[in-house]
Amino acid sequence: MKKIWIAAGAILLASNFCMAQVKPDNKVGVLLAGGLGSLYPQQQDASFSNTYDPGFALNIITYYRYYFTNSIAIEPGVGYLANGWKENFTVGTAGAQVSYEIKNSYLNIPVTVQYVFNKVTIGAGPEINYLFRTNSDRYTKDNFNEFNFGLTGSVDYKFSYFRFGLNYKLGLGQVYKAENNVFEKNAQSQSVMLSFRYEL
User: Fold this and answer.
1) Dihedral sign from CA coordinates of 188, 192, 196, 200
2) In the chain, at which residue ranges do the beta strands (DSSP E only) sit?
3) pLDDT tens-digit map of 12-23
4) Which residues on adjacent β-strands are paired with residue 58?
5) Of 65, 85, 117, 164, which has the fewest beta carbons less than 10 angstroms from its beta carbon?
6) How far is CA 28 from the centre of its chain?
7) What digits encode the pLDDT tens for the residues 67-81?
8) Could you give the domains of the chain?
9) CA 33 to CA 137: how far, in whole Å?
């Protein structure tokens, strides 16, 4: 009789373990994120100083989340990324000051690895951005590199079909083209955004 109870207990534990390892359904979703974007680092030398004020950042993507296990998934996506900032120059010894507002629009293709723990999801991975439009009273699209590689990270919390969280993007490539860069600015992009996700 004791052996029967032991066997029954082992079967129950095994069934619970298998149920815990059942993969969730793969998800199709939409992400909407908004926040602040800017460039870094600020620069100063004998001929000029260059600083950046943050502007509006917007990210809209559709994504597909594929689960390898109940807690590990990969999430490729494609969508729109806008990064804006204000550029402030102080030029020469006379201290002439000028400012320009810029907003670059990109085709955004992120691929992140997601770790899911209960209702919390943490993700990180690479992304590639293709510049297709520049809005500025000084610069044109030709002043910027078309392709920009970077890293993206996120953390969010699930409420039913919705997720709310925080996204961070860090550009690894130079934003300005070297051949069209009079002051040899070395600037990379970054943004911090609040995010909203809806999953089917």
Assistant:
1) positive
2) 27-40, 43-44, 48-67, 72-91, 96-117, 120-136, 147-159, 162-171, 188-199
3) 444 444 444 678
4) 34, 82
5) 117
6) 18
7) 999 999 999 999 999
8) 26-199 (2.40.160.20)
9) 26
Query: Residue written as tokens 């815990």?
Result: 20
Nearest CA to 102 among 47, 148, 143, 163? Answer: 143
Measured at the alpha carbon of residue 99, what is the angle toward residues 96 and 100, in degrees to the nearest 5? 145
Under 8 Å between Cβ of 153 and 124: yes
Q: In the structure encoding, which two tokens stand for residue 3, read together? A: 């052996």
Is the whole-model pTM more than 0.85?
no
50 CA to centre of own chain: 25
Token pair 């800017």: residue: 38
Enumerate the β-bridge partners of residue 165: 156, 195
CA atoms within 13 A on the CB side of 135: 9
Q: Which two tokens stand for residue 142?
A: 């030709």
Cα–Cα dist 138/125, whole Å: 33
